[in-house]
Amino acid sequence: MIYATGDGDHQFSQRIQGDAEFIRFRQALQWWSYRQSRKLFWEAEKIRDTLLQESFTIRRGLDLLVKNNLTVQLSEIHTYLKKIDDFHQSLVNLSDRLCPTPIQHSLTLSIECLLETLLESSPYLYYQIDVPLSWQNESTEHNLLILRILEELFIIIIPEIIRPISIYITSIRQANPENLVIEITYPDISTLVFHSSLPELIYLQDSFQFLLAGKCNFYRNSLSFSCGFSW
User: I need a labelling partner for 203 at 20 to 30 A (CA). Which of 57, 104, 152, 217 fits?
Assistant: First the structure.
């Protein structure tokens, strides 16, 4: 069988490439949507299992005091004040997880808050951040999206081990585009190879490119893995 060649083949090839790119981005966005939806589900579960239970306990205790017309001891007042303070702090933590307070003013401060949160569950993690305190054309929505990208990145590339891991975050000083470089140093080559080869990194790369019209590149060198973001 003889096949004709020419413009038709070129158009067909472009269509195939376009279809493949569409499928790749669709898979990446499905992954991104799933990750964000799962986080919202977890937060809803935490509210039902903790905050709502705490508020019910406080309300029930106060109702009993009123109904029984009991004389309130000073120790009981302090107990309820402590419960209310804890409840308030839980709401603050929830608010910061959903949208950190500094996000409206500084992406850098928000990244630092994210790293401090990581330290709570990864005490062997060390970090250094050397980026501008303010960025050009910052908006809350844009900053929050970048922060969510970085949060997913850290979930993927930070292993759950009790050995020292370091993260260095910097940016190339230039007017345009804005950029971030995240370099993580692992304790051994096997940990580096495993976490830098996870397929989720490709989904994250495509999600960043699609959602922020930016570029994301990965580099591996010795025991370090670098992620470069520009937008």
Answer: 104
